[in-house]
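B., you asked whether I could sanity-check this one before it goes into the benchmark set. Here's the sequence:
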Amino acid sequence: MKFNRILLAVSFAWLLVSFWHRNDLPGNIEYLPELGSEPLQTPTSKAPFQVDFNDVSYDIEPEYEYEITGMIVSYRHHDGNSRMHARAKDHLNMLDVCVIWGNNPQNERLHKISFWNGIFTCNVKTRDQQAWDAFDMNQLSNNHLISDDEFVRKQVLKIKVGDQIRIKGYLSSYGGAGGSKRGTSTTRTDTGDGACETIYVEQFRIVKSATSYWRISMWVSLTLLLIGLAIHFTRPYRPY
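And here's what the prediction gave me:
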């Protein structure tokens, strides 16, 4: 069937393109007023405490109470049972999420800047000098999110690039029995190793979810591809 061959070819090509662009920043985002505010960091009287997760006890040392509202530009989920996290017995670390706030979301050339997360870093790159000149690196942060709360852990699985989120908790150092200890940045102006914020999350909320037409396109093209494959494998065989 000629039509089905065309459907398979077009939907497969469409799927590849939309998958490649699935984490692009969506256009026409309506920004929340709170996005213009700096993160709120205040002294805390919270005493160090211990949590148990995945058969490991973790010592949490709060340094500041912390609240941040930002737009996600990149993220990386962590599987605490594989690779480096498993070796370090760091099952508590859910993900790294890189967010921007302040004047950065209003940067008209923000789409010219590429963001991506490494294992513990948020990386930024652009060849557009105007975009870079209008971007404030002090209004970007990479956040290591830790929690033993199953509800919070399920919420962070829902995030997408372009979502505007609010995080409340504690900037904290933490470490597990038999594993290494990780600290936290306490300023937004530092760079390099140790510049990421480590947040013990008490509340996590997607305040405004982004609509990514590339992601919608990806699922539509996948559906069409599966329909085409079903037709291909279920129709009667006809030798040429």
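One thing to flag: The mean pLDDT is 85. Otherwise nothing jumped out at me.
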